[in-house]
Amino acid sequence: MVQATALIDGNNFYAACEQSIDPSLVGKPLVVLSNNDGCIVARSSEARALGISMGKPYFKIRHELDRLGVVVRSSNYALYGDMSQRLMETLKSNCEQLEIYSIDEAFVHLSSPFSSDLCTWARQLRAKVHRDLGLPVSIGLGTSKGQAKLANHLAKAIPAHAGVFNLLATSNADPWLQSIAIENVWGVGRELAKWCRLRGIKTALQLRDMPSHELSMKCGITGIRLQHELHGQACLPLVQAPAPKKETCVSQSFRYPINNFIELRQAIATYVVRASEKLRRQRQHAGSITVFTRSSPFSPSFYKKTATAYLDLPSNNTADLLQASLPLTKEIFHPHRRLIKAGVTMRNLHSANYLQQHLLLGYSEEMQERREQLMKTIDHLNLQYGNGTVNWAICGLQPKWRMRRDLLSHASTTCLKQIPIVKA
Ligand SMILES: [Mg+2]
After folding, report:
1. Distance from the CA of 21 to the center of ligand 1, in angstroms?
2. What are the structural domains of the chain?
3. Is the N end or the C end of the chain the one with fewer CB atoms within 10 Å?
4. Is residue 295 predicted with pLDDT exceeding 90?
């Protein structure tokens, strides 16, 4: 029985999502900007071919992008999150065991019945994802996660592979490993790559074959595992159920620097509302809440402040968390500082399934049920009719400080009002 590990990875994921909801953008150079329309964080392959680099501040290359006819989009995380969920659902229904590794990557463990021809299986899956979601993916196959990552790199880097590469099907994998630079090996960070290069280790093959004791002196058991993985001996198991989150954070930059208490309070309240929704989705309660804000690190009088409150009863009820966090806003506010960012972090997270009750502060069973039902109803309405359909008054009505997203595409997959209209 053949066993294999595959890594399925979306190509230029954010750009591909934009092209998926607006097919007129397919084949055009396109870039996606970070929060507040700051820097380039994603490029279509056509934009890469024009030599546009990642991380470039938009204001610096705006005219150049105009001149080259590059389409620019603000980041639309509601769209990317939804497309990611659809991608993972499609993969789940076509794979035996799946580990969601990132927003656009999943490891898959394969044994029979797919074993007869892994490449055919991978090509069919790739075609299905493209047909159903309009997303291009690359699939790399090996006997370990490390090998699958390398194979995926080769599937993307060499156009002749057409998005699928199976390291198991090669008679000798060494030349392929030799073609991969050390910086492109999964698990090799900037510091380790530098250390390897100083010793003449420049490729994945050289890393695999270098003396193990030297590598273990540098990075211990992790280095040994890395070598085993490159040899095709699986050391890293598939993680199908992710560990529960230890903290949940929501933070964002403002559209313009603020020094007004009402605006800071609206922002903190907005982030608390979002963080509470996340907690409910994760089936967790928070035991403490931290709020923070800061001015620009480039301003002459840099200001940064955090404040924390501990809850008597861990909760994911928005009202409880707002009540705990709003007094903290007074603590972090400074009237003479221009604040550019704020956020909230929920910590001491407990599973909602095993909740400790408080002898003196608890709610009656009936009251608790009503409170939970209210949150469920709000979440349901916001999910069905779009975020913000039911909101808390303290968040403000259309606040001006919200981050800049002037070039935002539609939420075509998550908002009924923004579903594209087809005229036939
Ligand atoms: Mg990707």
Report:
1. 18
2. 1-170 (3.30.70.270), 174-242 (1.10.150.20), 248-395 (3.30.1490.100)
3. C
4. yes
Q: How remote is the CA of residue 149 from the centroid of ligand 1, in Å? A: 11
- Report yes or no: 247 and 349 within 8 Å, Cβ to Cβ: yes
Q: For residue 323, what are its two tokens? A: 């009540």
Q: Find the mean pLDDT for residues 236-249.
A: 86
> Separation of 138 CA from ligand 1 center, angstroms?
8
13 Cα: distance to centroid of ligand 1 (angstroms): 6
409 pLDDT tier (thresholds 50, 70, 90):
confident
For the stretch 299-310, pLDDT in tens is 888 999 999 999
Predicted structure pTM score: 0.81
Closest CA to 182 of 192, 173, 172, 174: 192
